Amino acid sequence: MEIINIHHPHAFNGDEFPPLAIALGYFDGVHAGHQKVIQTAIEAGKEKGLHTAVMTFDPHPSVVLNKEVKHVRQLTPMKEKVELLEQMGIDYLFIVHFTKEFASLSPQSFVEKYLISLNAKHIVAGFDYTYGHRGKGTMEDLPHYSEGKLAQTIVSKQELDAEKISSTRIRKELLAGNMEETARLLGRGFTVKGHVIDGEKRGRLLGFPTANIEVGKDYYLPGVGVYCVRMLVKGAWHNGICNVGYKPTFHSVKDEIPTVEVHLLDFEDNIYGEDVCIEWNTRIRDEKKFEGLEALVAQLEKDKKCAIEYFENF
């Protein structure tokens, strides 16, 4: 997959690219609904002999257009989004740098400068996709703005259990700790990448050594609690339990961001400094404050037993 970063105004005229079927969207999560849009573009490309592309935007439009928003957490920060799109078999990924100037383009100008001039022939987007200044352009308007130069497919609302699949719905389930439902909506397990750093090292003293994971600020995290997880370390997946929270047994003041600590089952290697990927599978319980270390250790033993039983049937 070739990645093309576009800054407005660009100088492409279409000669640089083969005829394209382009899927349009921000695609945070690349969830099951997004996958339908992208797969539809792939199928249109195969049918018409076109290469396939996705056009997305960075940073999130709300960061640029809303003065109150300084930073937006995402289900899939750009690096993960790129990896998922590549796995789907896309030929080109256009990442448009989102600015106020770009946002001020009329729908007509967007179609001419960002679709036709990139050699687009077939456009695919969801039924609610909009473009141009204040989102005044719709997919129904596309034949008008393109003067018939673009074919199109509008993907209808994708539902699960009679409710629209959306990034908002996924975030709600994620924050509630409903990992099975999150996975159903995503079409895959929810994962986060991070880096193993030095922690407080209490776990080792308690007989439950943990890897303290520094997670990028761009990620959404599951709601506070204890989970069964798998963690990818040095190319291999290992089962474990993960605490997302504030360790109230040891800290009376909450940090701004919860910590992520993983205890791997039957694993003793030193992995400080390693890059890892965590897949959340199911929630075990709430995080809570214990009156003493003995009570904490007893609960950790129960959590470990729960995880072992869970993964025996995984």
UniProtKB/TrEMBL annotation:
Residues 185-312 form the Riboflavin kinase domain. It comes from the Bacteria. It catalyses: FMN + ATP + H(+) = FAD + diphosphate; riboflavin + ATP = FMN + ADP + H(+). The keyword Zinc-finger does not apply. It holds the Pfam family FAD_syn. It is an enzyme of class 2 (transferase). GO terms for molecular function: ATP binding; FMN adenylyltransferase activity; riboflavin kinase activity. This is Riboflavin biosynthesis protein. Its EC number is 2.7.1.26, 2.7.7.2. Coiled coil: none annotated. Pathway: Cofactor biosynthesis; FMN biosynthesis; FMN from riboflavin (ATP route): step 1/1; Cofactor biosynthesis; FAD biosynthesis; FAD from FMN: step 1/1. GO terms for biological process: FAD biosynthetic process; FMN biosynthetic process; riboflavin biosynthetic process. Belongs to the ribF family. Keywords: ATP-binding, FAD, Flavoprotein, FMN, Kinase, Multifunctional enzyme, Nucleotide-binding, Nucleotidyltransferase, Transferase.
